[in-house]
Here is the input.
Amino acid sequence: MQKIPRTLFALHTGLRDQEIYGLRWDWEHDVKGLHTTVFVIPETEIKHGRERIVPLNTVARSIVASRRGNGSEWVFDLDGQKVSRMNDEAWRKAREAAGLQPVPVHDLRHTFGMPLRAAGVSLEDRQDSLSHHVGRITTHYSRVEIVRLIECVELLCVEEKRPEITLVKRA
Here is the structure.
């Protein structure tokens, strides 16, 4: 079942559903010296029109690895075709199968951000991880910043440090 990996990917990256479904293999970049990759989503594909870097933690990397070689230009495809949205009947069925409350897909972004806050990740690092740029402009990511963002999202994978993840419904 593909829906669960997409949901887990959303929970571990904070991506919007259209960013997940538009995620292309040619946006994946090696991070020199770290033996890992990140995705760089072009500004034309982002809601606020600024390039977005997507750091991958262990869970997100394993999902990407499981999708590698799918023969599609998109990381998450359906029979080689781009999927248009996640908030549909498939999302409802996946939610019910996992025993989750009826919440919109976008709330997965809140569910990504809250454990980061609970784990002590700074506001600035949470803003970068969620691609929120209100009130400040991040003009370029250095290798040090990428390492820090990966460390932040990796906190979601460390069992003894990870706060319990619960879905957060918008007010």
